[in-house]
Amino acid sequence: MRKLVLQMQISVDGFVGADGDHDWQVWGWGDDNRWDEVLKRDFNAHFQSIDTILLSRKMAEEGYLSHWRDAAKRYPHDQFYAFAQRIIDVQKVVPSDRLEESRWDRTVVISGDLSREVGALKAEEGGNIAVFGGAGFASALVAAGLVDEFQFYINPAALGGGRRIFDQADLRKFRLLGSKAYECGIVVNRYGPVA
After folding, report:
1. Which of 46, 129, 135, 152 has the greatest count of CB atoms below 10 A from its CB?
2. Interatomic CA distance for residues 109 and 101, integer angstroms
3. pLDDT per residue as tens, the chain (195 positions)
4. How far is the C-alpha of 105 from the C-alpha of 89, rounded, in Å?
């Protein structure tokens, strides 16, 4: 069975999104990338373990795929941006009852019960499934107990308020799978649910 891996940037005080327009992430996915070389290497290693991306409808419609397609074209010889090409190359799955068909290459739209559909996706043969989406999408996956591994990229900032991903979930316990601090100030904590 494949693992569903949720990777999110998060603040020290547990928020995945700020209320308002605050520059709190060490790297906010634009051209000003302040991650150190070791973190960039480890980030790319994660993408080599996946062969499918589960992507929220909203993120797909807001340009996630075109953003990374353009980055792969702009930086074809930059080893760090190998992940951008990987995003373009692997299968993408967008759960949505609003979309009838995909508008994106190598992307399928699924509809129906989220737990059933994602469970079927996890049961397929292949590599792990990376999840990208906003707080609402992540919260729904967490509440349904579908996430097998959390990768929290903890940024050295406290927001004092904002969006969380555990608001819909009951008490959950996790085991630490790994933790690594980086020179740029990011700490990546990996957790799995306790069965």
Report:
1. 129
2. 6
3. 899 999 999 999 999 999 888 889 998 887 788 999 999 999 999 999 999 999 999 999 999 999 999 999 999 999 999 999 999 999 999 999 888 888 888 899 999 999 999 999 999 999 999 999 999 999 999 999 999 999 999 999 999 999 999 987 677 899 999 999 999 999 999 999 997
4. 9
Token readout for 135 is 């707080």
pTM over 0.90, yes/no? yes
Which CATH superfamily groups domain 4-16+33-128+136-193? Dihydrofolate Reductase, subunit A (3.40.430.10)
Element (H, E) at 144: none
Helices assigned H by DSSP within the chain? 37-48, 57-61, 64-74, 82-89, 114-123, 135-143
The secondary structure of residue 168, as a DSSP letter, is T
Task: Single out the residue of 98, 146, 95, 90 nearest to residue 122, CA to CA.
Answer: 146
| Local structure of 41: helix, strand or coil | helix
User: With b meaning 16 or more CB within 10 Å and e meaning fewer, what string describes 157-178?
Assistant: bebeebbbbeeebeeeeeeeee
Distance of alpha carbon 3 from alpha carbon 140, whole angstroms: 17
159 to each of 56, 60, 166, 177, how far by Cα in Å?
24, 26, 16, 26
Q: C-alpha 24: how far from its chain's center?
A: 18
